[in-house]
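Practice problem: predict the structure.
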Amino acid sequence: MKKIKVSEMTVQEMYAAHQELWFWLANHPDKWKRDWPGWEVYGNSVRGDCFACHYNARLRGINCEKCFLESEDLCGRDGLFSEWEDIDSNDLRTREVLADLIATLPLKKKYQ
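Answer:
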């Protein structure tokens, strides 16, 4: 299996990988990000197991306001990701819905 160099991915490729990961999680709500089989292709070098954070850090350091995802609050204490991560792992329906919401966050217009 060919490995993809994350350091050379464009923002559009990072966004596509973000969607692959989160749609997989929506379809496998009993799993966690580290369980995603896609890591075999992308390796273990993605910061925080998050393509958006990795791209952001690569260009300008972590600054969530400059994330390529269009979201008011994805990572904050009450954000979608935090809610997904903190939800009871037996609440599969809620995990599925949250993962789908994260997967479908739009790319900011300036990156399209």
